[in-house]
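Data availability (excerpt). All sequences and predicted token strings are deposited with the supplementary files. A representative entry, AraC family transcriptional regulator, is shown inline so that the format can be inspected without opening the archive.
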Amino acid sequence: MHANEYCHVSTSQILGGVEMIDAQFTDTVFGKHAHDGFVISVVDAGVMHFSHRGESHNALPGQLSIVAPDELHTGSKGRGEGWRYRAMYPSKERMMALNQSLFGVEHIPHFRQSVISDARLSQQMRMLLKKLSHGAEALDIEVHWEMLLVNLLLQESQQTSIRHFNKAQSNIESVRDLLSDCYQQKLSLEVIAQQAGINKFHLIKEFKRCYQLTPHQYQIQQRLNHARAQLKRGFSAVDIALNCGFHDQSHFTKAFVSAMGITPTAYQKQFFTR
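Structure token line:
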């Protein structure tokens, strides 16, 4: 981590273990990565530059940004001295359940914009974060969290009809599920292509079209998701590298820093030094 940078990670037990980040970065560059849950962030200072859904974006102070599960994105400073931001990571299941209760469809919500300029939503998120940091009563925090998510869905989500998949799309989904279930295994492209019932080239092309990642890159993201969970449980970096299918601890650390901006050890310490 560069000078004048910090990244404080925490969880809110009041909100069911939702992970939160309060960070400042100047020269750190986040490579392409994805998360297993949603990322809702607000920029407090500077400019956050990131690519998402094939386009480049700049989030300014007060603006929100939203990235859905498994969506590939990057991160770096837009200009000047860097950026300071805070983020919350609601689970895919939480957002799907809320989407079901609001619109009667249980699928992953799709948000129209990567960057949201809405003073009311920004104020709601900042107020929620303030209440969390100041130890407000649980009920007060829960109400603000619920209303933030509800208003985001009502104002910014795009409700589409449930997709009907053809056989090829279903096969690509089965490959995604295989990579998720067997994240720690070293699968060959031949085995994966057999699972999909298509040739290797077509598999790579279609998988990347659907998920903006190659099958290997997707598997690495699944390994990192499981690695974060194991770090919170106190596993050592050496054991996690072995458990999650990384070649060694060095490869694990490099992939983790590229996605999170801090080392696995620094990330873990923030859960065991309070």
